[in-house]
């Protein structure tokens, strides 16, 4: 590392210890395989094959996950060295915020994100913020106008008092009362301004319309004259703040450019969801600001650290390694998690272990938000040794063009027909046709020779909203696991496409996610068959007294203890780990099942995968239960039917077995041959305690609907009786 390096990379501590440990697990897995090969179950060939299949799968999958842990690297930046360079050395950064539905993503949420990124500690004349609104909502547009006026007070306030975070909502809710008198006064007045703005926006939302005077005041609203519906309208583009214009804040300083864009939508033109929105933004921004660096965030992911742009630039501008870097990905973090992460949505282990592991093999995936890209790479440019990062983008010249003329010209880039017969969505921009446009785009960038960087600073750079109900979590995971599986089956499969282009460890790393959903088969088998056979009194695992018992016991216990420690090291709680195990089970037995089925249907041409937008607001009573960490089962969905059936089945098998053993006095024989099976079944029952509670005890709206309880009980009883007849 030289004196001028802008970042440093360190290897994880305790690497060797981990490698020894992992090798011992691997030995255990091999022994389990040998045991199965040498102990065929005589009267039950099919079940034996199922057990073999599941255990081969688990072993194989475990090997894949080692790519995340074998080597890990952690990054640190030296911003102070960057700031020694003259400010003039910094260039344009364009920030894209995407929103798609004013009901699911309320305008107040969206503008808080917008304000937080407008307030980055970065020269305003080099910053441009673009909001893409896939709903073309005049309410969102109105809120953005309000935000632009509020920004004139907010930005100087943030800079004068160096406040963090710079999302006003987050700032006002976390700010303590201990302020210097001078700031106190400004604080009160800015808070009042914010609340007034909020009231006006909420009022407009309630009335369903913006006040007449506002309508007349701003020419922008006339764009809605020809609007028919959110899937049928012209492109709408407004430069709300033009940094080259006269606009300044209340202290006379420049403001960043602010642009509203709703790309054209027509019913017979497919819009490609977020990927389509991003590509329209890439083109539109290239004619307005053309910043060589693009940051993209979801509308709920506000900036929590005003220094993040400078951190990210340390990687691109580093003299030794910056030329290889295509994108810098920050972890997704959330501000609405409960203490014990009821739905396991914190992605903790992913941020602390898995992505640093990928980073050691060539770089993390692109996960759609909190990611800084080089514009030219995103547009398809290949890596060469000469890819040294230069600020000199094509300067945008506006020779004598008025804002209205500029808007009119640039709008054409956001039309439905613009992309016809072009490479957009294929070789250029984000890729189309996959529910995880981000992952497939990142993979193809890496396959063109680029590296990426994972940067997980002490202070979270971005904070978003995690899903707050079980159903939402399962739906989100269905989208992710389905998208990842589709990548595996597409021409961008990391195995075929990536081989020879990226590191084998990285291919394995991608495969861990691509094979997520495939886990459903082995998991379903393991949660049903051993329990049913326990009920029948047929052993499927070695006896406790046998030597073969040891590898099973070792692999399972050691892996559980390790995953527990990993979770604690990542900053989680013990109960949080337990909750995550439950979610692990629930995702594998529901989301992943649907992901696999839908993907298969898509392959044969029967279905099309969409993009179900994650809910960002919930009813007050749902939120209250979420706060109390009570699982939300209050919906009649096929997913809940599966989960409840499995839960009932296991409890019936366990209870049935206990009754039988005590009745017949077989305790000793049972202990010897069915010990492991009973433990497995017992653990499944323990994991499902919240479900039984929701089915039989609770009576609030989050309890399991009685039709689901009834259906699942019926199915579980039928399965148990069927299996004991066979
Ligand atoms: O047609 C669409 C659909 C979605 N979005 C936006 O995409 C973002 C992400 O959508 P969300 O419903 O919040 O999905 P998540 O599951 O939370 O998103 C994760 O996973 C997605 C891929 O499945 C990535 O695109 C996201 O960046 C990543 O945060 C939001 O800002 C949406 O407004 C659009 O702009 N247009
Ligand atoms: Mn989201």
TrEMBL record:
Residues engaged in binding Mn(2+): 274, 298
Domain of life: Eukaryota
Subcellular location field: Endomembrane system
Transmembrane spans: 16-34, 46-64, 515-535, 547-565, 639-662, 674-692
InterPro entries given in the database record: Cellulose_synth, Nucleotide-diphossugar_trans
Bilayer topology term: Multi-pass membrane protein
Active site residues of this protein: 134, 438
Example GO molecular function: cellulose synthase (UDP-forming) activity
Record GO biological process: cell wall organization; cellulose biosynthetic process
Amino-acid biosynthesis in keyword set: no
Chief location category: membrane
Keywords: Cell wall biogenesis/degradation, Glycosyltransferase, Membrane, Transferase, Transmembrane, Transmembrane helix
A Gene Ontology cellular-component term: membrane
Annotated binding of UDP-alpha-D-glucose, by residue: 105, 134
Name this protein carries in UniProt: Cellulose synthase A
Protein's organism: Salvia splendens (Scarlet sage)
